[in-house]
């Protein structure tokens, strides 16, 4: 729908670009001033938006040191930042919309969210993450070789998993997979599923493609789905038996291993009580993207931001902060890197 509307309004858009070029330059100039003593460019406030893939309070606490790290790095690159404001969106889409509107300057967003909102934001960096000890598109391999461990190999992609929990129905489908039996659509449609919102790569898009490739179906064809606001909620529901299966990123059980027994009420290990029943294709890693509408964004500041985040990802303190999203560092990105995500989005939209 977004693309359809944009085509219908192409003439208006072109005219607005002609009118807006000068005003954008003026906005940047007024939002950035130069400190006479240091020579650095002064920016009063930098707003960073995170998507709620973990508990919001957990993200805010873990990323608090990022404020000082980023301020110090940018100071060395010629920018004095008065305040770094970190927010967690109510949804993945909320962060994308904030970037498009210019109310968020920088967004740490998945590739799927980026391509939905790439008319309003530019991608700067792709996250790298630790590889995993299991790299297979066969669900049984993940169960035969668990627990999943991190490796030192750095990768720019990850997989999504369909994970069955301790409910009777969840254990039944897991048993079929571990016996080498093929699951039927009826097996899957009889389950209660936890899914994320429609722009989440691991929580919606790629599992939908998995269903399409294997069964000619889509998440919207499932009879019983529950939308979870974050993966912590999804695992809590899986542990309690409210849902039989969830869809998530491949190392999510590592992130929720302790909570499984300490907060979610289980006595046995998450590795004993959960099994993989489906594995998606690889998903290109999360992005650091910036708003096209932000009054502080110009090419020079985008270059400084990119270098600052790369530098932060190369320090122990920085790695500790960005580990909240399983990031281990950053490399420069291009819009074309996410063409596979665009194809995925197009397929998802065509099925709705």
Automatic annotation (TrEMBL):
A Pfam family reported for this protein in Swiss-Prot or TrEMBL: Phosphonate-bd
Highest taxon above the source species: Bacteria
Protein name per its UniProtKB record: Phosphonate transport system substrate-binding protein
Originating organism: Pseudobutyrivibrio ruminis
Organism lineage string: Bacteria, Bacillati, Bacillota, Clostridia, Lachnospirales
């Amino acid at each position: 729908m977004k693309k359809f509307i944009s085509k219908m309004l192409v003439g208006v858009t072109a005219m607005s670009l002609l009118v807006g070029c000068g005003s954008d330059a003026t906005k940047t100039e007024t939002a950035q001033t130069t400190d006479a003593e240091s020579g650095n460019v002064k920016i009063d406030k930098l707003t960073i938006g995170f998507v709620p893939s973990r508990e919001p309070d957990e993200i805010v606490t873990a990323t608090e040191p990022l404020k000082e790290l980023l301020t110090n790095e940018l100071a060395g690159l010629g920018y004095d930042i008065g305040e770094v404001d970190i927010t967690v969106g109510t949804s993945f889409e909320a962060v994308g919309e904030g970037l498009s509107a210019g109310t968020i300057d920088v967004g740490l967003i998945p590739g799927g969210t980026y391509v939905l909102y790439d008319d309003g934001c530019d991608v700067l960096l792709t996250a790298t993450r630790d590889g995993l000890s299991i790299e297979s598109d066969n669900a049984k391999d993940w169960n035969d070789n668990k627990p999943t461990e991190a490796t030192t190999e750095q990768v720019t992609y990850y997989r999504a998993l369909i994970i069955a929990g301790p409910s009777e129905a969840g254990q039944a489908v897991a048993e079929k997979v571990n016996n080498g039996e093929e699951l039927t659509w009826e097996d899957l449609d009889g389950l209660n599923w936890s899914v994320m919102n429609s722009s989440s790569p691991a929580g919606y898009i790629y599992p939908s493609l998995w269903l399409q490739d294997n069964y000619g179906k889509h998440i919207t064809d499932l009879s019983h789905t529950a939308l979870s606001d974050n993966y912590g909620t999804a695992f809590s529901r899986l542990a309690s038996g409210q849902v039989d299966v969830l869809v998530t990123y491949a190392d999510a059980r590592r992130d929720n291993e302790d909570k499984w027994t300490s907060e979610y009420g289980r006595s046995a290990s998450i590795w004993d009580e959960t099994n993989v029943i489906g594995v998606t294709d690889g998903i290109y890693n999360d992005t650091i993207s910036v708003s096209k509408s932000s009054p502080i964004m110009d090419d020079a500041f985008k270059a400084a931001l990119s270098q600052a985040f790369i530098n932060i990802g190369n320090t122990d303190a920085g790695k500790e902060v960005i580990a909240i999203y399983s990031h281990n560092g950053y490399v420069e990105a291009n819009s074309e890197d996410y063409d596979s995500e665009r194809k995925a989005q197009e397929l998802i939209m065509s099925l709705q």
